[in-house]
Amino acid sequence: MLPLYDLRGRVAVVVDILRATSSIVTALASGVTHVFPVAELAECQALGAQHGCLTAAERDGRAAEGFDLGNSPFGYLDGVLPVRGRAVAISTTNGTQALRRSLAADAVVVGAFLNLGAVVEFARAQQKDVVVVCAGWKGKFCLEDTVFGGALAERLADSFDVSSSDATLAALHLWQQAKGDLHGYLLQSAHVRRLNSLEANKDFAFCLRVDEYPAVLPIWREDRLVALQHEVARTL
Ligand SMILES: O=C(O)[C@H](CS(=O)(=O)O)OP(=O)(O)O
Ligand SMILES: [Mg+2]
Questions:
Q1: What digits encode the pLDDT tens for the residues 101-126?
Q2: Sheet (strand 11-15) strand order
Q3: Which numbered ligand comes closest to the C-alpha of 60?
Q4: How many other C-beta atoms can be found within 10 angstroms of the C-beta atom of residue 56?
Q5: Structural domain boundaries enclosing 44
Q6: Which amino acid residue places its CA nearest to atom 5 of ligand 1?
Q7: pTM
């Protein structure tokens, strides 16, 4: 098992804009019933067999062989494989690892630009510190996840002290630089260059759509992610 981040007493918003958390939000928005995010490919396959669910896997930006889907949000949108009413086990290079490592938090939700509004509503209703867990890339900083943290901080500035940490302030400043042309700004990032080389420009553009699914909030329950409806989140 992966070592856990010490998030006890806090709420974790796990973010991997490119592309794991964007794909998970899209999956639930497309009628997937629940998602099992796992660290290892073998575990992903085993869950697929055990639950009769779809499997999605990616390593180093490429769809892993022997799985139903890769890590593209379009896998849930293009209609090639019917996904409505199905569950999905998923394993990716960074995003599902970050999710598994965040499970010590009091609540774990999934964030992306696609569901920013749902994350904002949920975070506002919490009486606890909210930590944005940026998946990054293989243990390193990445621009797109941090810029998302800044977007969240800006929307929460009326209810949280966003200047209480340098990390939050830095993220906010990056977002303020980026938001006028998010696409152009993130074209500089290493991951976008990697995705470009894998001909995934379409995924990049899609993952930057803000509030495409403003009512979809994936939340960890027992051993899986399920969609918590926006209206419910507001009353928690
Ligand atoms: O599929 C992705 O976008 C990345 C692959 S990598 O970072 O280029 O190795 O995986 P993710 O877990 O979504 O960061
Ligand atoms: Mg990533």
A1: 999 999 999 999 999 999 999 999 99
A2: 62-63, 54-59, 88-91, 35-37, 224-229, 216-221, 107-111, 11-15, 130-134
A3: 1
A4: 33
A5: 7-227
A6: 61
A7: 0.95
List all residues whose CB is within 6 A of at least one atom of ligand 1: 16, 18-20, 58, 60-61, 71, 92-95, 135, 137, 191, 194
| ipTM (interface predicted TM) | 0.96
The pLDDT score that the predictor gives to residue 232 is 47
What is the domain count for the chain?
A: 1
pLDDT band at 199, cuts 50/70/90?
low
Q: What is the pLDDT of residues 143-192, one digit of tens each?
A: 999 999 999 999 999 988 888 899 999 999 999 999 999 999 999 898 88
| Ligand 1 atom nearest to CA at 19 | 13
State which ligand 1 atom lies nearest to the alpha carbon of 198: 8
Residue 233: inside a domain, yes or no? no
Whether 1 maps to a domain, the answer reads no
Please report whether residue 155 resides in a domain. Answer: yes
Mutate to test the pocket of ligand 1, among 62, 93, 96 (most ligand atoms within 8 A of CB): 93
- Ligand nearest the Cα of residue 17 is 2
Q: Flag whether 60 is in a domain.
A: yes
The Å distance, Cα 58 to ligand 1 centre, comes to 7
CA distance 142 to 156: 22
> For the domain that residue 119 is a member of, what is the CATH number?
3.90.1560.10
Q: Give the integer Cα–Cα distance in Å for 31 and 1.
A: 30
> What are residue 157's phi and psi, to 5 degrees?
-60, -25
